[in-house]
What we know:
One of its GO terms (biological process) is epigenetic regulation of gene expression. It is a single chain. This protein is of the alpha+beta class. It folds into 2 domains: 130 residues, no CATH class; 160 residues, Beta Complex (Beta-clip-like). The chain is built from 9 helices and 19 strands. A hairpin with a 5-residue loop joins strand 10 and strand 11. It starts with 8 loop residues before the first strand and ends in a 13-residue tail after the last helix. The structure holds S-adenosylmethionine.
Amino acid sequence: MKSTTDGRWAHLACAIWIPETCLSDIKRMEPIDGLNRINKDRWKLLCSICGVSYGACIQCSNNNCRVAYHPLCARAAGFCCELGDEDRLHLMSFEEDEENQCIQLLSFCKRHRPLSNDRLIKDERTTWKTIENLDYAPPSNPSGCARCEPYNYAGRRGRKEPEALAAAPLKRLYVENMPHLVSGLIQHGALSNMVSAKSATDSKALVDLLNLRKSYLDTSTSILSMAEKYKFMRATFKKRLAFGKSRIHGFGIFAKLPHIAGDMMIEYAGELVRPPVADRREHLIYNSLVGAGTYMFRIDDERVIDATRAGSIAHLINHSCEPNCYSRVISVNGDEHIIIFAKRDIKQWEELTYDYRFLSIDEQLACYCGFPRCRGVVNDTEAEERAVKLHASRDELIEWDAE
Ligand SMILES: C[S@@+](CC[C@H](N)C(=O)[O-])C[C@H]1O[C@@H](n2cnc3c(N)ncnc32)[C@H](O)[C@@H]1O
């Protein structure tokens, strides 16, 4: 994948990657030259905002400027950071080198940005112009330092303050996660050409999948152990899956090859944290930097996987009320893994979805999956109703006098 010395390209994952130092010290934002000389002949790429060295920075789109930075540091610093070509499909064919699956970002450093916080759009004559100021400002910190604030149990998962709720639609716009309605089973409209040429590609895709299986697995045995399936899944997910612009929300994951019900699709990987840590990160950091999306996967009441800064492309899988996948925690050689399995046969270029079963008593997240049986919300309404029945307020509790 291209990194930044030639500028303006970044991995999708890096576009939502926040370096640790940015989280702890967001004030050090004075741009310095992106390329720092380490010794006489070598140059090292440093983020001009957080100062951390990381290969996948992006560079200012001004041709004469060499300032480089992480996409998320740029967002935090108020630099313009947009997708260079919104409509470009990022789904490559099976043969195409996956190294080329890049997203082009158009971005300007502090010096070259047109106007503070302005977004750029391409008009009909394909010149760049600014549109209305979004006036987005991350919510302020009451105590001045996030790390000093006590943990707010009432604010757990979804219970947001009024100003945060009011800012949510703006945040959505800010990160350009505009929802689209789906139009059928194959959810990517721009893939219609591929779909019309389906019969020809289907048989080829099947041959590709069989060849892939043959090359990785001992085909003399048709029954595979969980460990073998896991190994195959890990070794081949880049060949089988790709990310692309979704009709449901932002980016999504698509099957490059057809899959059958029960196939292990991909592992949901990330950093294992406790729920209070996940809530705090989401509330204080990600909500303002990443935008309206969340990359947390709740395993149970004790464990949450935070895939915002680490993990695979699995964190881009969108929710659907009629999903083609489901998630399970499995144990392989004594280690637990969250695996996304195919719930039914999945066609080539179909978007992968699973039911998030989002649980929040106070917040409802509108669903844009567009399937006939869509609940209208991402929330697991039945589970929430059950939770409400189990919940008793303090004044409803009766004092118990032990005899
Ligand atoms: C793990 S991200 C999924 C990837 C996301 N599309 C992106 O581009 O980053 C989860 C977020 O995507 C959005 N999302 C996913 N599925 C959705 C759906 N069916 N309807 C509305 N929003 C959805 C929600 O904002 C959710 O918090």
